[in-house]
Amino acid sequence: MSESDAASTVPVTVYTREDCALCDAARETIEETAAGLDVAIDLDMVDVDEDPELAEEYGERVPYVLIDGHPAFKYEVDERELRLKLLAAS
Fold first, then answer.
1. Per residue in 7-63, pLDDT tens?
2. What distances in angstroms separate CA 30 from CA 11, 23, 41, 72, one per listed residue?
3. Is residue 88 over pLDDT 70?
4. What is the DSSP letter of 40?
5. pTM for the full model?
6. CA 70 to each of CA 13, 14, 18, 43, 89: distance values in angstroms, whole numbers, following the listed order
7. Contact criterion met (CB below 8 Å) for 41 and 10
8. C-alpha–C-alpha distance, residues 87 and 78, integer Å
9. pLDDT (0 to 100) of residue 3
């Protein structure tokens, strides 16, 4: 990957839990929307239950989505808003 590719890859972090249907839907929406926009993402799915501090911070408030390090969505991902955020960050 060249440096320009790395610069245009948008980091997306999703705080999730096991057996979380909303988390699965969020991941699907993020992947499909990014692919549709031809925006490269670096998707990091973080299970909050594997870290006591994250579990305390996020608990039941998942999925919690960060785009380019900035809070973007909680519980549900709005596809139209996601498009705008991904394009702005890329």
1. 589 999 999 999 999 999 999 999 999 999 999 999 999 999 999 999 999 988 999
2. 11, 11, 9, 12
3. yes
4. -
5. 0.89
6. 9, 11, 23, 14, 10
7. yes
8. 14
9. 45
| Amino acid, single-letter form, for residue 89 | A
Using DSSP, state whether 38 is helix, strand or coil.
Answer: coil
Residues 6+ apart with CB under 8 A from 41: 9, 10, 11, 12, 30, 31, 34, 86
Cβ-contact 5, 21 below 8 angstroms: no
Alpha-carbon distance 14 to 61, whole Å?
11
Higher pLDDT, 5 or 69: 69
Instruction: State the Rg of the chain over Cα.
Output: 13
Host H or E run for residue 24: helix 21-37
Q: Which residue has the tokens 């380019």?
A: 68
Q: Which amino acid is at 20?
A: C
Pick from 27, 34, 22: nearest CA to 83: 34
